[in-house]
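quick one, 423 residues, struct below
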Amino acid sequence: MKLTRTLKRIHLTQGLVIDALGFVLQYIRSNKLRTFLSLLGVTIGIFTIISILIVIDSMKHGVVSSLSKLGGSVVYVDKWPWVGGPNIQWWKIRRYPQPNYDDYVALQQQGRCIGSVGVRVYKSSTVEYKRLRAEDINVLGFTPGYAMVIDAEIERGRFFSSQEFDAGGGVAILGHTIAYQLFPDGNAVGKTIKVAGFPVQVIGVTAEQGSSMFGLSVDENVLVTYNYIRKIMNMRWATVTIAVNALAGYDQEELVSDVRRILRARRGLRPTQEDNFSINTVESAQKELDKIFGALNLAGILIGGLSILVGGFGIANIMFVSVKERTKIIGIQKSLGAKRWFILLQFLFESTLLSLLGGGLGLLLLRLIAVAVSKFSSFVLIFAPMHLVFGLLLAVVIGVISGYLPARSAAKLDPVKAIDSSI
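---
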C-alpha cells in the first residue's frame, strides 16, 4: 500500500515537472522579448550578488595566502601595528622609534622562551647594470634568523653563506622580475650590479612568486645581508622589522610576554608608560580581516538583493499573466478533481524553473568572466562549487517567493467561474 502511494507521488511529481517545463518552453517561444526582459532582473541579480561574493572570497584567499607566508607562530616587532581602528592613536605611534639592531641583540641574548630572532630592513634605492637602470627598488637586508619567514626559493645560483652573513660581503640575490629586467637573457648570476652606487655581485635569482596582497613577494626586490646594507645605506629612515620564534613547548602568548618584557626594559620604560613599539601576529591580523570581509559580504548581499528583488517582480508578472491566460484550463482541472495543492505546485514549479533559467544564465556569464579575468590578469577569481550551489539555491528561493501569490490566486479560483470565463 505504501509502495503504491509512493509510486503515485513520484509519477505525479514527474508530471508536474514535465508540464511546468512544457509551459516554460512554450512561454519563451511565444513571448521571447517579454520573457527576456522579465528574466533579466534575476540574471542581473544572481550575477551581481555572486560576483561580489566571488571577488570578496578571492581577495580573502589572496590575503590569507600572503599572511601564511609570514608564519603563523612568528611574532613581529614593528613600529606600526598591522591592524588599526578608531581607538588607535596614530599621532603617538608616529613618534615611536624604529626597531633597531640593539633591540635585536637584546631579544637574542635575554629571551627566556625565544628560539630564533631575525631582523630585516628595507629601503628604496636605485639598481643599475651598465646602461640599464631601475628606480625605487626595495633593497632588503636581513640576518640569518629572518630567512625563516622570507619565502625566497632560489631558481638560479645559490643563497647567502654564513660567512657572507657575518662579514656583510657585497653579494646580492635578485628577485625574479628585477633580474629579468636588468638581464633579459637570464644570465644574471656572476654579474656585478650597482646598488645605491655600490658594486654588488649577483649570486642568485629567486623563483617567480607573483603578486602579493601585502607586498610580500620578493620578485621586485634585491636581497642583501643585513651587515652589508648597514654599510652602504643610512638606516635612519629605513623600515625595520624583527621576527621572533618561540622555543618548543612555549605558546605564542608566552612569547609575546617575553618580547614585551625585554623591549620595555631595554628602552627604559616605566611601569606606567605605554609600549613604544608594536607586537604583531598573523592570528590578530586574520581576526581583524575576518571582520572586514564579513562586513563586505553583508554589504554585497544587500546590494545584490535589490537587483534580485527586481527580478522577482518580473517573474511574478509572468506568472500572473499565465494564470490569467489559463483560467479556463485551471477550471477544467479543478472540475475533474484537481486539488488546490496540485494547482499551487504546478505554478510554483513553473516560476521556479523560470527563476533557475535566469539564475543559470547569470552564473554561466559569471563563470566565463572569471575564466577570462584569471587568464589575462594576475588577479585570480575563484569560482568555487559553493558559489554555484548558493546561486542556484537563491534562484529557487526567488522563484518560489515570486510565484507563490500567482499560484495561490490560481489555486483559489472557483471552477465554475473559471470555466465560464470569457478569457
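The chain has 13 helices and ten strands.
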